């Protein structure tokens, strides 16, 4: 009988493994920074796209098939819109979520953007236009 030198449990080299056990199990890597990151947390909640803007601070989260959440005035005002399918303009590299009932348009453009407060770079620019305001910022897909 030959005993595998690293098997740890006295298993023989020819012994069958318990069902579901992998040959070389690897410990999961846990990124503590990512766990605490708001972008990562949004992704875990099912958010497909997230955007931020400054002066005044605002954020937008789009959860496909569920809702479009707009948080404005430094977190004081939360508006949840029902999800609508976007209108995509491929040649212009632009996507719009039109919410006419709420007099709101979310426009995502395929142009690079830099957050004015943090200096962080993003792949897309975002504008939220409502009857009484225009919010400009940056965003990224989370999936």
- The termini sit apart by 50 Å
- Strands of the widest sheet, in order across it, are 4-3-2-1-11-10-7-6-5
Q: What is the element string, with H for helices and E for strands?
A: HHEEEEEEEEEEE
How many strands, which pairing sense, and closed or not: the largest β-sheet?
9 strands, antiparallel
Mean pLDDT: 82
Q: What integer value in Å does the Rg equal?
A: 23 Å
Indicate the multimeric state. Answer: single chain
Q: Spans of 5+ residues with little confidence (pLDDT < 50)?
A: 1-18, 20-27
Overall helicity: under 10%
Number of strands: 11
Strand content: 35-45%
Form type: globular
Structural class: mainly beta
Number of helices: 2
Please describe the topology of this protein.
Elements (H helix, E strand, L loop, with lengths): L31 H5 L1 H7 L4 E5 L4 E6 L3 E6 L4 E6 L4 E3 L4 E6 L4 E6 L3 E2 L6 E2 L1 E7 L2 E9 L2
Antiparallel strand pairs: 1-2, 1-11, 2-3, 3-4, 5-6, 6-7, 7-10, 8-9, 10-11
Compact summary:
The chain is mainly beta. The protein has two helices and eleven strands, in the order ααβββββββββββ.
């Amino acid at each position: 009988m030959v005993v595998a030198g690293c098997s740890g449990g006295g298993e023989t080299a020819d012994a069958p493994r318990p069902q579901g056990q992998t040959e070389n199990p690897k410990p999961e890597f846990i990124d503590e920074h990512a766990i605490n990151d708001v972008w990562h947390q949004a992704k875990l909640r099912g958010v497909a796209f997230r955007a931020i803007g400054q002066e005044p601070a605002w954020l937008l989260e789009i959860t496909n098939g569920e809702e479009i959440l707009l948080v404005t005035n430094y977190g004081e005002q939360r508006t949840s819109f029902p999800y609508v399918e976007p209108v995509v303009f491929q040649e212009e590299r632009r996507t719009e979520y039109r919410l006419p009932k709420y007099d709101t348009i979310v426009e995502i453009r395929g142009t690079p953007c830099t957050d004015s407060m943090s200096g962080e770079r993003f792949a897309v620019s975002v504008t939220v236009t409502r009857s009484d305001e225009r919010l400009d910022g940056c965003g990224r897909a989370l999936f």
